[in-house]
């Protein structure tokens, strides 16, 4: 999907309704959704390919151009006139989100498009260190499609990292790592979660370690890295004690895209055989950098190295 930002200032209230009037000062666009994971990978210096659907519309062409500019390989992207490229427009004034407008429609002719995409994946001669399945619930990741990708990856010995969608439970037999946030993890594990307005868990909530172990069993031994917002992360690996990775106190401007950054860093770690607890510690630092930026952000290799040196 394409993320569009309308930047502006507010100095008055509309006479037509009790809403702020945003005076536009700038506009910008960047890859969003699953493409934001690719954008993060490229920013970190990785060689990344992106696979998925875009429309033959103007937003689709612009999205491909943005990815090409960042150095991503877009040869596995399927462009179709039956697809409407999703565009999310955020209006931001004084570093605050005013409103978000989503311009999208449900996927049509999905089975045919998924077959086209699978054909591209099967015929690709590129060597991958890891594959990321980033689920935004837009219709690409059906269960049969996911089964095919996991089978292809397993046959080639390529680890698969999955960022799940709570409304879209999938069987993930063969996945190496799954990276849900707390709410997604609770929903997928069938555990209720109660929290106050600041997102702080209520007393009596099921501990993340227990939820992570339940999900690891559900996904046949896949490691689970649960992001917990201000509480950091919880990592569960089969046969090992669950570990907490504490976050650092920092100023949060925008949490949008932080999960994509975590997924990207973890995929790089998995691809390079970095122990998961070490990769998670690095991902935690990377996410801390991103939430300090306004708008769907990425962290560069230089920014991450500086933060790790300071830490």
Uncertain segments are none
Strand order of the largest sheet: 7-8-9-10-11-12
In percent, how much strand structure appears in the residues? 15-25%
Q: What is the CATH topology descriptor? A: UDP-N-acetylmuramoyl-L-alanine:D-glutamate ligase
CATH class: Alpha Beta
User: In this structure, how is the largest beta sheet organized?
Assistant: 6 strands, mixed
CATH architecture: 3-Layer(aba) Sandwich
Helical region count?
9
Explain this structure:
By secondary structure, this protein is of the alpha/beta class. It has one domain (33-85, 105-310): 3-Layer(aba) Sandwich (UDP-N-acetylmuramoyl-L-alanine:D-glutamate ligase), CATH 3.40.1190. The protein is 35% helix and 24% strand. It has 9 helices and 12 strands. It has helices at 34-43, 58-70, 110-123, 143-156, 182-189, 208-218, 258-271, 276-290, 301-310; strands at 2-13, 20-31, 49-55, 73-80, 87-93, 96-103, 131-134, 160-163, 177-178, 223-227, 233-236, 243-245. Helix 3 (110-123) packs parallel to helix 4.
């Amino acid at each position: 999907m394409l993320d569009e930002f309308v930047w502006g200032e507010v100095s008055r209230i509309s006479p037509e309704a009790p809403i702020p009037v945003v005076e536009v000062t700038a506009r910008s666009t960047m890859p969003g959704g699953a493409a934001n994971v690719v954008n993060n990978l490229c920013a970190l210096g990785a060689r990344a390919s992106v696979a998925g659907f875009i429309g033959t519309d103007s937003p689709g062409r612009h999205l491909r151009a943005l990815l090409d500019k960042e150095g991503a390989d877009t040869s596995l992207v399927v462009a179709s006139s039956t697809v409407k490229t999703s565009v999310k427009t955020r209006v931001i004034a004084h570093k605050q989100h005013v409103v978000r407008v989503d311009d999208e429609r449900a996927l049509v002719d999905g089975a045919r498009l998924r077959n086209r995409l699978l054909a591209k994946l099967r015929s690709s001669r590129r060597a991958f260190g890891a594959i990321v399945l980033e689920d935004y619930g837009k219709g690409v990741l059906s269960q049969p499609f996911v089964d095919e990708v996991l089978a292809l990856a397993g046959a080639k010995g390529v680890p698969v990292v999955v960022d799940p969608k709570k409304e879209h439970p999938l069987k993930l037999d063969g996945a190496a790592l799954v990276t849900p946030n707390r709410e997604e993890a609770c929903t997928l594990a069938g555990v209720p979660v109660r929290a106050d307005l600041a997102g702080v868990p209520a007393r009596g909530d099921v501990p993340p370690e227990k939820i992570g172990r339940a999900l690891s069993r559900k996904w046949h031994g896949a490691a689970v890295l649960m992001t917990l917002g201000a509480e950091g992360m919880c990592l569960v690996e089969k046969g090992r004690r669950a570990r907490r990775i504490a976050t650092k106190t920092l100023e949060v401007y925008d949490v949008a895209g932080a999960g994509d950054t975590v997924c990207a860093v973890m995929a790089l770690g998995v691809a390079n055989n970095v122990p998961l607890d070490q990769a998670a510690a690095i991902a935690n630092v990377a996410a801390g950098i991103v939430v300090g930026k306004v708008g769907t952000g990425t962290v560069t290799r230089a920014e991450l190295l500086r933060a790790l040196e300071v830490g």
